[in-house]
Amino acid sequence: xxxxxxxxxxxxxxxxxxxxxxxxxxxxxxxxxxxxxxxxxxxxxxxxxxxxxxxxxxxxxxxxxxxxxxxxxxxxxxxxxxxxxxxxxxxxxxxxxxxxxxxxxxxxxxxxxxxxxxxxxxxxxxxxxxxxxxxxxxxxxxxxxxxxxxxxxxxxxxxxxxxxxxxxxxxxxxxxxxxxxxxxxxxxxxxxxxxxxxxxxxxxxxxxxxxxxxxxxxxxxxxxxxxxxxxxxxxxxxxxxxxxxxxxxxxxxxxxxxxxxxxxxxxxxxxxxxxxxxxxxxxxxxxxxxxxxxxxxxxxxxxxxxxxxxxxxxxxxxxxxxxxxxxxxxxxxxxxxxxxxxxxxxxxxxxxxxxxxxxxxxxxxxxxxxxxxxxxxxxxxxxxxxxxxxxxxxxxxxxxxxxxxxxxxxxxxx
Length: 414
Description:
alpha/beta
């Protein structure tokens, strides 16, 4: 059996669903294939994000929980930041994904669940669709003018079509979603240090109605530790959390993988676009991917539809996506990767020192830094508030970041 579409999207996560909506809005025949039984399950991400982005992306308020107080913990330090107007939030993952699916369908896209892509269809070096197995184990070919690989960390089509290897550096996260009756629902914790999150960090993210996501992530191969055994220790042994998790019990258990190498070299070839984690489009600063996946998917869907209408689905035309994405996010992702490589190797003493610096920042500066909203003004403002940094090795690090921020967009896009 064979079907023909203008735009075919592999993966029903945030990147794939956003791409489907964007393409379908332009009137092209669009299909999403999702290998799992339902959209938004299983959960592989903690859902930490930013209210500013949820608003920009048109996400309803009931799908994210605002947080007013953020605590940073290291072995010997605690730094709190209070926000009268919340800036960060925790997303209802399943609800968000299904909301995006509803928007895609409303725009005219078609979704098929329990459809597993087995290989790419290639003709004269052009990707012309996929071979897939349906929910009733029937094998079908689906042809398309443009195929979008939004399959996430696995980047299944990218690997099968010589668009790079599997990710070698990645974050592995394990997480409980708990009912925690004593946990304050407006407090978020980020925890660093070798005792609880070697070469990574741990988190406690409240998501409303007494529910909290408690997780830990480590970066491999920087560290070979399994993240999972740390969860129970964090609940029991960290004094600031032990009381808050009194009487708590897990209701769900999640694991996930996140690419930590920065963006891949190229996002397009004839008939194919990589979007979301498949292209390394998440921020390596704290392993944040959801909002970036949606932005990436929107751009990919728009370019795919434009290519279909122009009758040109060559790599040359589709590379407009590369230029748009790198022009908007390239510098920020570059800086995030530089920071990530540095802090992933921190000792406990260095983490304590980082919090000594962090507590000198304003709440707005701390949020801007954590969000990856870098600017020369941010770094210069930090130095202005902390002139002692000029006489330390940290000044050199800030100089490197400023140098990267001052790169012309065209250089970053190369």
